[in-house]
Amino acid sequence: MATEQCDAVNMDPDLELLSDEELEREAEGFKEQGNAFYVKKDYAEAYNYYTKAIDMCPKNASYYGNRAATLMMLCRYREALEDSQQAVRLDNTFMKGHLREGKCHLSLGNAMAASRCFQRVLELESDNSQAQQELKNAESILEYERMAEIGFEKRDFRMVVFCMDRALESAAACHRFKILKAECLALLGRYPEAQSVASDILRMDSTNADALYVRGLCLYYEDCIDKAVQFFIQALRMAPDHEKARLACRNAKALKAKKEEGNKAFKEGNFDAAYELYSEALTIDPNNIKTNAKLYCNRATVGSKLKKLEQAIEDCTKAIKLDETYIKAYLRRAQCYMDTEQYEEAVRDYEKVYQTEKTKEHKHLLKNAQLELKKSKRKDYYKVLGVDKNATEDEIKKAYRKRALLHHPDRHSGASPELQKEEEKKFKEVGEAFSVLSDPKKKSRYDSGQDLEDDGMNMGADFDANNIFKAFFGGPGGFSFEASGPGNFFFQFG
Questions:
Q1: How far is the C-alpha of 379 from the C-alpha of 385, rounded, in Å?
Q2: Does residue 409 register a pLDDT over 90?
Q3: How confident is the model over 461-475, as a mean pLDDT?
Q4: How far is the CA of 104 from the CAs of 30, 63, 134, 193, in angstroms?
Q5: How much is the average pLDDT of 259-270?
């Protein structure tokens, strides 16, 4: 047996002087020293001594089996797999060799090969509990792989991450599972986690095309498109047939070009073209959340220039849905709300902005929105008179004359009680409006949002619009409305 195990040509010429029995004793001594270091968990030294034993007797299956066990403790599973396979080639009945080969396959994610190894162990020893348990682990991994494949097809990336986490509990060294998990983390927007997994793999294997692709994917989804393209190109150098890297590279370049075209058109004042270009860019890759959020916000800016304010609000909302931290989108939407007099919504957006970034500018915008909201909750005297906020004194007087005559109660004396009541209310509002807007001091306080009650002006039930009417039209003899024909009235001073 010693002759069979130790008949290899040895590299050390001094060993040729030893007999087979002496070589075997020497090898056993190295093995025993290796065992001692293994017990002490000094796996590096154990590895060295097992290697010496193998050099002495390269056809001893147990030496390869021991070294395989040591390499497994050092997490060097590929090397351990080679040693365990060599062990069972030398001795197909070497149960520990088959068991270790199976565990190496399992750790590397090859559950089918692992199953075959554990089944061989059970052929040798049908009640081997370790093989029975590891076989169940292999079957579980195959099931998680199946579920992950279905999940990926359905774009249920959380399910894929869950399945890969479970599979990695038994297949800790499987780069394939780690890459799939990292890719799905990137697709879920969990970029730091995805980058961490990809970077760990690249530290061990800088040429891993899948890890390079995932690293680029994270950068791409974080809107660092130029850097992302560099990683995609590097991945394609390592694996020219890497279809995902090729597609991502093409999308990244197309997205960058279309976005820049839109920006150029906007700067040149060609808003219709910019709107179309941003719309086209949004169709390139629905998965690129951050870039698409910016594109929606850019299109909203163009939309506001084109007076498409409701569309601009909708685009900002889409941008915020994609990226809840996107301050620029909140600011743009808030301004659109202000322009459409939706002040409560504007205040809500400005509050969100100010909570995130407490700057003087944001504080000013919030206060202005709060003021406009306050003003919007009272009567709009400009609307009552039908004039804009920059109306001159003469325009205010003309508007009052027209509205006061239109709603004067005497003009509607023959109408139904309900209509008389409504017209009387409008007549009073017209008087209130003129009283405020014709007085520079009151108008200033009204425009600034201050309470008019502070001026001692009572706009309540005691306010008499007829006094305003008399003061405006003047004349000592009073006035009346007389009919000049069916439905026609004229105003007559007494």
A1: 11
A2: no
A3: 68
A4: 25, 17, 11, 26
A5: 96
| Site of tokens 């004039």 | 387
Q: What is the C-alpha separation between 352 and 312, in angstroms, rounded?
A: 19
Q: What is the phi/psi pair of residue 46, to 5°?
A: -60, -45
The pLDDT score that the predictor gives to residue 195 is 94
Tokens standing for 19? 């007999």
Q: Is 491 helix (H, G, I), strand (E, B) or coil?
A: strand
Q: Is the pLDDT of residue 485 over 70?
A: no
Tokens 């069916």 — which residue?
486
pTM of structure: 0.66
What residues form DSSP beta bridges with 489? 483
Q: Which amino acid is at 12?
A: D
Residue found under tokens 């304010």: 309
DSSP H helical ranges for 359-486: 360-376, 381-385, 393-407, 417-437, 440-447, 465-473
CB 468 within 8 A of CB 382: no
Extract the runs of DSSP E, i.e. beta strands, from 152-230: none
58, two tokens: 């390269």
pLDDT of residue 477: 45
